[in-house]
Amino acid sequence: MTETPSDQADMRAPADDILRAADLLAAAMANREACDPVRLLIEAHGLDGAYAVQKKLESDAIDRGEVIVGRKIGLTAKVIQSQLGVDQPDFGFLTDAMEYGDGEEVPMSRLMQPRVEAEIAFVLDRDLSEEGLSLGVVMNAIAYAVPAIEIVDSRVRDWKISIVDTIADNASAGLYVLGGTARKIDTLDLRLCGMSLDYAGEPVSTGCGAACLGNPLNAVLWLARAMLRHGNPLKAGQVILSGALGAMVPVTPGGAYTARISGLGSVTANFSEVSSSGSGKDE
Amino acid sequence: MIDLGLIAQRLDEAAHNASAIKQLAEELTIEQAYEIQKQSIDRRLSRGEKRVGMKMGFTSRAKMVQMNVSDMIWGRLTDAMIEEEGGTIQLSNYIHPRVEPEVVYLLRKPLAGRITPLLALDAVEAIAPALEIIDSRYDDFKFSLTDVVADNCSSSGLVIGNWQWPDTDVSNLGLILSVNGKPMEFGSTAAILGNPIRSLVAAARMVAEAGEELPAGSLVMAGGATAAVALSSGERIELELESLGRASFSVE
Fold first, then answer.
1. Would A32 be classed as within a structural domain?
2. Is A225 on the interface with B (CB under 8 A)?
3. Which residues of B touch A202 (CB under 8 A)?
4. Does a structural domain hold residue A37?
5. Does residue A10 sit within a domain?
6. DSSP annotation of B231
7. What is the ipTM of this complex?
8. CATH at residue B209
9. Domain assignment of residue B102, given as a range
10. Which of A179, B70, B145, B180 has the fewest beta carbons under 10 Å from its own?
11. Long-range CB contacts (< 8 A, 24+ apart) of B210-215?
12. Per residue in B206-246, pLDDT tens?
């Protein structure tokens, strides 16, 4: 594709805005100090511009030595979509540095204004890189399902996000915890499986599989197609956090949150107390 | 001196005529509120209705916090409240009805007093998916704790799906409440006190505190698992409950 001088001029300004937005979010992350929404910078470039910001953050992470190990799907509940004025989910990247084990201590010092949600994670054992993706192909590519807690976080102050803000901010991905009970999906009712997210002995969020786009597999198919379109197809070995099965809950430092998903077992995110070296973040 | 019988009569008539009344002006104790409930239901029994069991309310921590209470509440169920599963309810028989997805227990042995979950389960003949139609007799569905207890905890109709053997673990069953085939609420039975069997344990305790027992054959509605959904005419309501099946009705 050849570019005329005027095309180049048109491309320059957006690129600057996108880099500035990425810088703001990266600085917020590095300093644990929330920033203003970035939508004013990049709104004109639409969702593509927001994904361009996210792409910059992803390549920065790779440059730091992190490895992309999967993707997360966000906005998989109809009510959340309508709150943000969109009719589709969004996605973000997951790196090896974001992953914690079941029950392992999750340091609050790595988080700013975290919230937890219970999800089903899928592990792929085949690439999803061919055109013509269908539910059948996706089901064939899934090795296992495991229970997961996604710790979402926003680099934007007070979570005052628009769709553009959250996509640019890596779909508000923070950290995540995977359970160790891997199940083949043919033994599961992914649509009707019950979910309870428990804190201090009480269910603080409940739901079921269908809360995620009718069935978490629908979300995985959407993601597989979206990644193919973005020229970055899903690969064997990658983990997919498919989307919340119930409302998200703000994290209490020092708290342990256990997600129970019927047929899938459970997983616990065990947060540290606030670390004094964590610097001034939310309150 | 508060005339509890008169309040019971007003609430009974409001339910019978499907017409809302103002919230109670009297300052009541919780014991007086339960006495009004009892007298109000006694009026139904004297018209020939039969007692069939009890319902539990405020069975989620969130609801208890919202109402600023530390215990559940309960109400009395009669046979006239049972609506046909798969059938049609008449909106004109209700004031401003809402529906909640639930689990219902059928007892094969009497229950009363402080018991363990194991003893509670031993008394269960069967379990079923259920829809409770709640319908406050107060204006705008607004009430204090004593108001709602006096009003039989808003209980007004119940629709019970297929009975299943009680060996299903009901602690975390997923559920979808649909209106005209569109999912409206997603949830889990875990929202009922973390496990609905705890609601049955609480039912046995609370009924004994009132000097009564749950006889064999009683129904116990364990409590709502999601927010209630307001009903309108022309709707088809369906509950789909993991492992237990479905319950549905239409609204005319």
1. no
2. no
3. 61, 194
4. no
5. no
6. -
7. 0.93
8. 3.90.850.10
9. 4-251
10. B70
11. B210/B34, B210/B38, B212/B112, B213/B110, B213/B111, B213/B112, B214/B53, B214/B54, B214/B107, B214/B110, B214/B111, B214/B112, B215/B107, B215/B110
12. 999 999 999 999 999 999 999 999 999 999 999 999 999 99
